């Protein structure tokens, strides 16, 4: 059994604690690795290393930083299948989804590397003569990155690559359920030529490692993807030191299916949106709001299609859905099924762990007769549980969609362009899909949500650079005399 250490100042080092934790395959319950737990002191060592490396790294021209990222992207491509299979073993998602996760990391690495030739600022005329105005981007400094387990390579790449190309140095904490993909990413970046101290990896508990990252005064920005509760805590604590904070939190994403929709296409989308990654996505479609005119036929076809989904080890290419990540998540999903039944929803399919599979498998679950005020229709379950809600009109459907605290992704299936544009205008979400499910973001477009889904920041696309840079405004006055803006303008 392989044992993994922390990565600080370009070296794999033992933690101060001497304590270990296990990495378990959720499909087989086999331990696949032992990993060292970091202490607050280890985090401080990582911060010291990042601080020491900052001047050199931020002073390296961005196109030269980009060369390292381009090499890393090519290495990720070369190792795509190996990394995908490791991801399926570690996280449980089926192999074709794992390949997509790795490809997303590849795409993000190439995209961020390309920004090394841009990192665009603005130029604008001055209101005074013989004066020139522009903006430039500057790195923030040492940044703390905290990532979840559901996209164990893509989400770290979404944060690490823009942070690096912008000239920051990093203290990185991956989720304890899926650290191996982060370790492999660090190895690849190191092999690609990343200088020591620029990227530091610390693993362990959020209450120790995560807390020290949030509270350490030398870390100037935090980027976090995870639960709303933890995000609120980070925002409050980091705000005490005026840190930059970027949060990507939960979702309770709706798919609206109108009476004029292509029903087969909509069912394809709902199946992928609800049960892809076993429902363990912040963009998962956990609510489908269906027009009452087509509801009976839609429900029957959806249930019949869902019954055909094959559960099992994701390394089997014929598997449609893998396990949930751990026993705690399995119990949470089971709890919400009981809540749904107690609230009066009809359990139409599933609703229990899948037996006799050995891992953390839960049957794809569908509730019908769900009202929008039920907890299963309002709270994020993060598992393969779908609520079907009836609606009589688009206006009502939009009201139902907007009735939750979240606002990440949304979708409408309709052949009516008026319906589509009304949904775009009225749905409270950072992302809206037309005739496609709520999942499948592309890395060159901004990603993020409104309301409790985040704090207004966006990841990916050009906004990925916004997240990790400070804007500095620069004035050149070559008039040779004192000029006073506003005062000297009549």
Task: Considering the chains and any ligands shown, give keywords for the structure.
alpha/beta; globular; about 500 residues; Aldehyde Dehydrogenase, Chain A, domain 1; seven-stranded mixed β-sheet; five-stranded parallel β-sheet; Aldehyde Dehydrogenase, Chain A, domain 2; single chain; 2 domains
Could you characterize what this model shows?
This protein has 490 residues and is an alpha/beta fold. The chain is built from 14 helices and 20 strands. It has helices at 40-59, 62-78, 80-91, 95-114, 154-165, 180-191, 206-215, 228-239, 263-275, 295-307, 327-343, 394-401, 417-426, 463-467; strands at 3-4, 6-8, 11-13, 20-24, 31-36, 123-125, 131-139, 142-146, 169-173, 199-201, 219-225, 244-248, 253-257, 285-291, 346-349, 365-368, 385-391, 409-413, 431-434, 469-477. It starts with a strand and ends in a 13-residue tail after the last strand.
Quick synopsis:
By secondary structure, the chain is of the alpha/beta class. Helices cover 37% and strands 21% of the residues.
- Rounded to an integer in angstroms, the radius of gyration calculated over CA atoms is 24 Å
- Total count of helical runs of at least 4 residues: 14
- Low-confidence regions: none
* Number of strand segments: 20
Summarize the amount of helix as a percent range: 25-40%
How many domains make up the 3D coordinates? 2
Mean pLDDT: 97
What fold name stands as the CATH topology of the largest domain? Aldehyde Dehydrogenase, Chain A, domain 1
> Proportion of β residues?
15-25%
From the helix content, strand content and strand pairing, which structural class follows?
alpha/beta
């Amino acid at each position: 059994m392989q044992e993994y250490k922390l990565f600080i100042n370009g070296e794999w080092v033992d933690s101060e604690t001497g304590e270990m934790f296990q990495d378990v395959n959720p499909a087989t319950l086999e331990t696949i690795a032992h990993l060292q737990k970091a202490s607050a002191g280890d985090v401080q060592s990582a911060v010291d290393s990042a601080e020491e490396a900052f001047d050199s790294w931020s002073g390296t021209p961005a196109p030269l930083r980009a060369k390292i990222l381009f090499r890393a992207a090519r290495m990720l491509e070369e190792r795509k299948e190996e990394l995908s299979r490791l991801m399926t073993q570690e996280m449980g998602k089926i192999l074709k989804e794992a390949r997509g996760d790795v490809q997303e990391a590849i795409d993000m690495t190439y995209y961020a590397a390309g920004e090394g030739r841009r990192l665009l600022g603005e130029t604008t005329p001055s209101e005074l003569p013989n004066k020139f105005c522009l903006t430039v981007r500057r790195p923030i400094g040492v940044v703390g990155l905290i990532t979840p387990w559901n996209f164990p390579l893509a989400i770290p790449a979404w944060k690490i690559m823009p942070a690096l190309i912008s000239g920051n140095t990093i203290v990185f904490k991956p989720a304890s359920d899926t650290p191996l993909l982060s370790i492999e990413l660090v190895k690849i970046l190191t092999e690609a030529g990343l200088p020591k101290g620029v990227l530091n990896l610390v693993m362990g508990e959020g209450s120790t490692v995560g807390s020290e990252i949030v509270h350490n005064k030398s870390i100037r920005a935090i980027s976090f993807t995870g639960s709303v509760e933890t995000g609120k805590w980070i925002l409050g604590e980091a705000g005490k030191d005026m840190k930059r904070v970027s949060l990507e939190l939960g979702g309770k994403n709706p798919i609206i299916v109108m009476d004029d929709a292509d029903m087969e296409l909509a069912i394809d989308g709902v199946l992928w949106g609800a049960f892809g990654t076993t429902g363990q996505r912040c963009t998962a479609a956990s609510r489908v709001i269906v027009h009452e005119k087509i509801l009976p036929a839609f429900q029957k076809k959806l249930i019949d299609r869902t019954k055909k989904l094959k559960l099992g080890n994701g390394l089997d290419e014929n598997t449609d859905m893998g396990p949930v990540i751990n026993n705690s998540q399995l119990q949470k999903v089971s709890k919400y099924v009981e809540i749904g039944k107690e609230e009066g929803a009809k359990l139409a399919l599933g609703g229990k762990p899948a037996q006799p599979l050995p891992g953390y498998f839960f049957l794809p679950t569908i509730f019908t007769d769900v009202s929008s005020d039920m907890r299963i229709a309002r709270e994020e379950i993060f598992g393969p549980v779908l609520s079907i809600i009836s609606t009589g009109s688009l206006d009502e459907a939009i009201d139902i969609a907007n009735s939750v605290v979240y606002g990440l992704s949304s979708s409408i299936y309709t052949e009516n362009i008026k319906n589509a544009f009304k949904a775009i205008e009225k749905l409270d979400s950072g992302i809206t899909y037309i005739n496609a499910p709520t999942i499948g973001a592309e890395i060159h477009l901004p990603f993020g949500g409104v309301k409790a889904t985040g704090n207004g920041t966006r990841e990916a696309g050009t906004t990925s650079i916004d997240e990790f840079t400070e804007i500095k405004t620069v004035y050149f006055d070559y008039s040779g005399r004192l000029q006073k803006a506003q005062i000297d303008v009549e």
